[in-house]
Amino acid sequence: MLELLPPPPTDPLWDLTYEYGCDERAERLNLVLGVYRDHTGRTPVMAAVRQAEIRLAERSESKEYRGLSGNAAFNRALLTMVLGPGGGAERAAAVQTVAGSGALRLLADLICRTRPGTTVWISDPAYVNHRPILEAAGLRVRTYGWCDPDGGFDSAGVLRELGRARRDDVVLLQGCCHNPTGADPSAEDWAALAELAVRDGWVPFVDLAYHGLGDGLEADLAPTRLLAARVPEMLVAVSCSKNFGLYSDRTGCAVVLGASDRSVRHAETALQNAARTLYSMPPEHGAAVVTAILEDEDLRTLWRAELDVMRGRIEANRGELTARLDALGHGTAARALARQRGMFSMLPLTSREMLRLRREHAIYGTTSGRINIAGLPADRVPCLARGIAAVLGSR
Ligand SMILES: Cc1ncc(COP(=O)(O)O)c(C=O)c1O
To answer: Is the distance from the beta carbon of residue 208 to the nearest atom of ligand 1 less than 6 Å?
Structure first.
């Protein structure tokens, strides 16, 4: 049977990570995957996570099945965090998932079960896995542009293109820290998007993967809360991979907001049924850790402080990179980078130039120009700036 299988495409990001692993140059720099690294280049276990894990190891009594929705306390805690106190949790349901990717897939399945062949609009460029996940679930994908020529959020263009979305469509929006561009809508832009959704009746599908790493937790969640307050129905995929550093524990949840209790309960059961046929139940450990943190004031305060430190380091890296590029005579590129938010920055380089950055300077970003600014040890920023300047300078 397996002899019949044609060579399948491999994942470009993991291919690049493999290539990086084979690169023997001492100065090599891996800015491919969206993973936070501290000043020593490590991806640490957050202290709040470590303390929660110690408590759990001492106190947990059973590893019995949790049920199809996973950990109920986790689901409640994430609903409160995402929607805010009084933010409509009573007209919402949450189902624990295998991280943000699992939430995207379960919600895509829910859309397909509700209305097969629904069109979902995604940004162009988008997170590399959006289209594959939606298409694997059987959905149609259309795109809307995201950036203006200077790399900023193209407010007029996005509103114009989404003006073509119809009542039965779903629009996927990243709640903050857009991957891969780092270009985010302003508060006014979000209000305009919410008005458009209300006017035209399409359903917002918010992907939240970087909340806390842009402008702070509350500020990063504000657009999602604004949308939730305005529209009758909404879907949210929540990841705890980045902001709790739980990448390999695969922790997240799928949230649905509906206009009636009946529709929300039906959607919750449909999500559970989808989980049942995919993996049955999500893993408990990460959800238990997040719950222990969010339910305990001391651990919550510690986690928030650590998240702020991570965000500060990302901002400092971006500030240092832009200042150095400016000093090296690349003010336009510097200004574009300075406006971006979150873990990623989009370099104004072509795919050929990104290849040169890799070959000539051992700096690994994606061919689209994306680099993980959070994966950069502070003492390597000058070398990154020099590499970019060298490539830009020989245009
Ligand atoms: C925009 C976006 N959504 C979702 C995810 C999925 O994250 P995970 O499945 O690791 O929680 C990512 C991961 O990089 C992402 O960038």
So the answer is: no
- Give the closest residue to 365 by CA, choosing from 378, 382, 348: 348
What's the confidence (pLDDT) of residue 61?
81
Q: Cα(243) to centroid of ligand 1, in Å?
A: 11
**Ligand 1 centroid, distance to 357 Cα (angstroms):** 25
Regions in the chain scoring below 50 on pLDDT: none
Residues 6+ apart with CB under 8 A from 202: 121, 162, 165, 166, 167, 168, 169, 170, 171, 196
Q: Is the minimum distance from the CB of 97 to ligand 1 under 6 angstroms?
A: no
Q: How is the chain split into domains, by residue range?
A: 9-44+313-393, 49-295
CB 120 within 8 A of CB 134: yes
Out of 3.90.800.10, 3.40.50.300, 3.30.310.50, 3.40.640.10, the CATH code matching 49-295 is 3.40.640.10
pLDDT of residue 69: 96
What is the predicted pLDDT for the residue at 287? 98
Instruction: Judge contact between 150 and 336, C-beta under 8 A.
Output: yes
Which residue's alpha carbon is at the smallest distance from atom 7 of ligand 1?
100
